[in-house]
Amino acid sequence: MGVHEASKGKCNEDLENERRKCSFDPIELTHFLDGGAEKTRERKERETFFLSDADLQDDVPDHFLSHADKYRNSVRKACKIFRKIKELQSQAGGVDSYRQLLGGQLGGAILKDGNPLTLHYVMFIPALMGQATLEQQAYWVSRAWSLDILGTYAQTELGHGTFIRGLETTATYDPSTEEFVFNSPTLTSYKWWPGGLGHTANYAVVVAQLITKGERHGIHPFVVQLRDEDTHMPMPGIKIGEIGTKLGMNATNNGYLGFENVRVPRDNMLMKNAQVLPDGTFIKSPSSKLTYGPMVFVRVVIVQDCATFLSKAVTIATRYSAVRRQSELVPGEREPQIIDYRTQQYKLFPHIASCLAMKFASNWIWDMYNNVTSEIEEGDLDKLPELHAMSCCMKAVCTADAAWGVETLRLSCGGHGYMTCSNLPSTYGLVSAACTYEGENTVLLLQTARYLMKAYQQAMSGQEMTPTVSYLKNQPGMKRRPWKNTIATYVQAYKDVAAGKISLCAKSIGRRSKNMSPEDAWNMTSIELTQCSEAHCRAFIVERFAETVRDSNFSVPLQQTMDHLCELYAVFWILIKVGDFLMFTSLSPSDVEYLRERQVWLLQAIRPQAVGLVDGFDLHDMVLGSALGAWDGQVYERLFAEAQKSPLNSQPVDEESFNKYLKPLLRANL
Description:
The protein has a domain at 148-285: Beta Barrel (Butyryl-CoA Dehydrogenase, subunit A, domain 2), CATH 2.40.110. Helices cover 54% and strands 9% of the residues. It has 24 helices and 10 strands.
């Protein structure tokens, strides 16, 4: 039992019974997911340090505030958070706290609808680290890290997002003053979306089209001052503001930014890669791929955050499903817990598996990112395309899975899941946003597809293959591998499906290119190309899941449950994509029937472990922020208590609306 749970009051009886059924100790799973008992201890200490601070708690729930007040409250809490982080700087967990407070569990507990300072740490500082020279880093990173300035990352425009080569903002070099002159030539060239841009940041890394000596040299990053450091007023020529309310993330302070002859010193161009000399001479970057760095980093972080969002939703829905009783499974008997319905288990348990699948795959990508970043520093760019391709499809598939999963889990909670105080609507708003930011998912899948088409040609010509596409070398041709109902067969089958879809796409493009341009052939094949990227990613995720479960040193009870979850994930997606497996593997209709029966068996086997599994995620009640999902399971008491917080309930009669509108209506003799 975690520290925060031990202090709780009376627990719902059904939930207590569920915890007694679990065959493993949830703390074993907690330690594994955290990276050890010491990491769990550090995390809990951080949670206590932040969540026990009264200044970081709300008397009135955020969703009752106006848009402006919600922003002001988020700025207040964000500033308090970073003051507290500075207190931790001398401690081992100091740096880790940034990650936890900007997108992880802890940040979402305190700032439920977004943090206006997130991009300062998640994109502004990483962009400086990745794109600035050592001299520039010495100046800018030190100022940013000590919060002397607040930054954001301004790339996306009103008219262009994922297609960054199409950005319209211009930075024209003036050698007479050694300055760049920034302009927004059209309405669509206005920067649009950056978090914190509206009223929070006073600097930004701005991505703009570089023009020098009358020539365009593509997009490059620049540090631009947006607001006066003392008054916070916009600098001359800066047109800036907030873009308004959205489905979610309404405290993030997303903004717009336009330029009218804004002059920026030459030294403010981040020149680690490309450079502009004082006379305006342009020195090209050794590789255009070096601009991938900040985007790859953010996409890896997004996948990790999606696992967190989904784990919150599945914890809420699983606990609620153990408490909620509904209908008569057997006439005359007590209404059963809804978690006993097989259809409810189908809505819940695959998403418990999905949380783990995303986490294990993102851990692998994170390690790969750190290794490739080290190699780039030494001038080795060989693995960057593979990292870029994997981060693209992982971001696309995991955000889509998480958004679909959260919505399924909301629906699994019936009408109560529609309540804001369930925290499921807000969680959906946050996770679905990730489907379009930092690369719209369809476009990202197509970027991965370009890599896969090149990899397929390399495989066909017998070249050496990178690890994530090495399966393209080992295809059985017309003769298919025999089907066995084992994890090893499932993993190989996912690779065979991916390889088959990649092969079909390559052949389709080749055939179409005989009658049309390569670009038209690509567009004609683009639906299949997105599907082959998804299949490639799914094969990667399933293999990482199977490897992690196989190679980890679990106790026997937890090992059995993890085996079941891994198998459920694999079988679940085989049945959803059954046409692909019938087409590209030796799966037969009788095997499909077996898998359907096996899926039902797996749901039944996981059923007694379900509450223990979500307890193992060890999400603090304040992280969950849900009347439906708290540790104690007192769902109805919490729902009623939340209803009393509505400002409309402060008086028995809302005098203004009654006297102004209702009373005259009632006396109008209509």
